[in-house]
Each structure stands twice: as structure tokens, then as C-alpha cells.
Amino acid sequence: MTSSLTVIIPVYNSEAMLDVCLRALARSENQPLEVIVVDDGSTDGSPGVAQRFGAKLLRMPKNGGPAAARNLGAQQALGDVLVFIDADVEIHEDSLGLIARRFDQDAQLDALFGSYDDTPSDPGRVSRFRNLLHCYVHHDAPREANTFWAGCGAVRRSVFHSVGGFDTQYVTCSIEDVELGMRMARRGHHIEIDTCIQVRHLKRWTLGSMVRTDIFRRAVPISELMWRERTYPKVLGKRQLASALILALLMPFLAEYSWHMLVLGVVGYVALNAHFLHFLAQKSGILASFEGLILLGVHHLCGATGVAIGTLKYIFQRRRGASLLVAVLAMASAAGWQALTVHANYHGNWTALFGTNQTTALPAELERGTYRMAGDTGYDGQYYRMVAHDPWLKLDYAQYADVPALRWRRILLPGLAWALAGGVQERIDGTYILLVLVFIGLGCIRSAGGWRGRGVTRRAGCCLCYCRGR
Fold first, then answer.
1. Last-in-domain residue among 286, 317, 348
2. Fewer beta carbons below 10 Å: N end or C end of the chain?
């Protein structure tokens, strides 16, 4: 028995693109049982376009977003399989036939989705990059998925209704399809990616629209969803996550003098994404590959930023969110004030934070690059800073300790600073100070009660005092 298909298209003020979309559907080798266009409060001629092509037109009482529009279409659908496509795509002639055959041949298949093709409509640099990235990610992803894509995706009508349809809390075009797929996967439904099912994307991207979408319509809600579900969409791939992490970790070195770490990170980043850059070069030329590297960096930085924002939102929305917010704001204020102080008073030299009124002389090997206050020859917590520079204790730093005895419990943080800095002397002080600020944050959060009962003790909040020898 051949599966009957209902195509559902939500539309909002996309008259020209909807015309192209419906013309492509009319050329399909396999015609669907019905085409439902759901007008989401358009003020242009989109409803007239739908009627001109003979589609079944449904109207939303007000603009409620694509999730609500698709749900309305699904309620009126007669087909066994619901095929969701966006109004800004041009479906390939064989795609509907491929969808029907996949569901006919595999009774265990509950949902599937395809991908954009590699010939986007808009010739702009950002548009080509964005659409080719989407195409590549879907082709590079595992066949079995735990997500869904409503740009061109199909789901059995019975399964769609059994899980409750799209979440209408997403009132703009966001990750309502990703959330639906993760909900279906959690309930044991089988979802696959079939990249032979393709559509051509008609949307025009700009750098601004890409940044806004990547941060606020993708990364922020996806990170919140990942924290709630304790999993992540497989389609993202570990390469994407690793790339965003590398760029996030590289940011401190952009402002430091650690050019060798910067070069190493960039080389690693390029190596991680070499296959995609080669794909770009094949499709658009070598120049597009270099441009794509820059845009890819922007994309991953936006992803990392959005994940940070989404994680904070998730934390603050929990029971102790208010206390955590106060703690983080206090930490940010303290760090900001320290930065202003160092910039205004110490010529930007952060080693001034080690200064005190002690009279012990500083070892000659640490003298270079160290800020000297007037009349000051000693450094607060100097012994532990020295341990960070020489964790193997090869140098005779004991004479500079604030107490004669070696305190093993206090050298863990300096040792960690040495390890993260790769043993490079020029980077150790900066790394050490960053670690101190991190532990200030842990102490603030612990004091606010945000991590009570989760294994974070008061010692985390006291590491600043320990590492500075107080």
C-alpha cells in the first residue's frame, strides 16, 4: 500500500517565495494527496498565491509562529504521512516520491528529513556559505537521528499526534522542529536523515541575520533544550562542538602575547574543519573556502556565545536562579573593577595584583615583566606564584615563602596554572590570574547557595586565599 502524503506549508509574508515553492510542488513526479498552506497572519498576497495553485488554505487568527501554523495544518490533514516544508524552499522533483517509498519500505520508520542541496538560490557570499554549511552538516551527520527538520521533513500522522505536535511556546522560527525530534526520539520513535531528499533554499542571508539567528534562534534555545534533556542533537556532530569549544578557549589568547598558542589553536581549528573547507572549495572555489573559514569562525563563536547565554538562562530559571544571578553579577563586577584598576593604575600589568608591602626581594628570574609598586620589593602570595613558574621546585624559592614550611595543599592551583600555560613562563601569570578569577566565581556561587549539596565545598571559595598565601 502506497503511503498518502499531505504537504503542509506555513507562510508569513512570503508571497514571491511561496509562488516558487508551489510551482516546484506542481512539478513533482509524485503528487501528494493534498497541499495545505497555513497563512500565519500575512499582510501581503501570500493567501492569494496559495489559492491560485489550488492549495487548501487555512488561516491563523493571529500570527502565532510556524509551530502553531504547522499544528493547525496537521489537524486538518488526511494523509498517512505529514510532509512539512518551508515556504522558502524549492523541492526537487523526486523528493516526494523518495519520501513515500521510504515509508512504504520501512514500517519501523516513524520520521525522516532531508537537506538543502548545494545550489542555493541567492548568490551572496553569506547565503552560499550558510546554505552549503547546512547541506554539509546534514550529509556529514549519522543516518540515525534524534532530531527533526521541518524545512523538508516527514512524519507519520499517528506518531505526530501521539507526541503532541510542535511545541507552540516557540512563537518565532526557532528550534521547534529540533525539540519535536528530540521528544520523538525520547519516546522511542525511529528517525533518519536521507540526504537524497533535497530542497533548494531561496532565503537571502546577511551577516547580521546569520549572527542573530545563530545566537538567539539556534544556540540559546538549543543549549537550554540540551540541559533539560541531558543530550544533544546528533546532527550537530562532535566536530561542530569541538570547533566552537576551540574558538571559545582561544579568545583569551587573542588579547595576550601567547601567539604560539593562538597559532596552535588556529591550526587545530582548520584541521577539524578541513573536510568542510574542501567541500566549499569544490562548490564555490578556493576564495570562497578562505571566506568560509572566516564565516565559519563567526558561526562557531556565535554558537559558543549562545550556549553560554542559554546555560546561564537555564541556571537562573531554576529554583536558586536569583541567588546565582547575584553571585555571577558580583563576580563580574569584581573582575571588572580589578581590570579597570590594573588598566588605570598599573599600565595594564596584571602582575601588580601580587603586590604588597613585604620586603623580601623578588627572584631575578621573575623580575622581568613584573610590575613594581613604589617602595615595594615583595609580593603577596609570592611563593605560590613562584611555584606556578617552577612546579618541580628546581629553583631555591623556599627562601621567598611567606612561611618556611612547604604547604602542599596550596600548590595545586599554581600547578594547574603551569599545566594550562604549557609551562611557558610568559603565559603563567595570566593563566594563574584567570584561574583565581574562576575560583572567585565558584566561591561566590557557593556562598549564594547555588551549588549546595553538589560536591562544591567552601574550599573552592577559599582557593583565592590559599593561592595567595593568606
1. 317
2. N
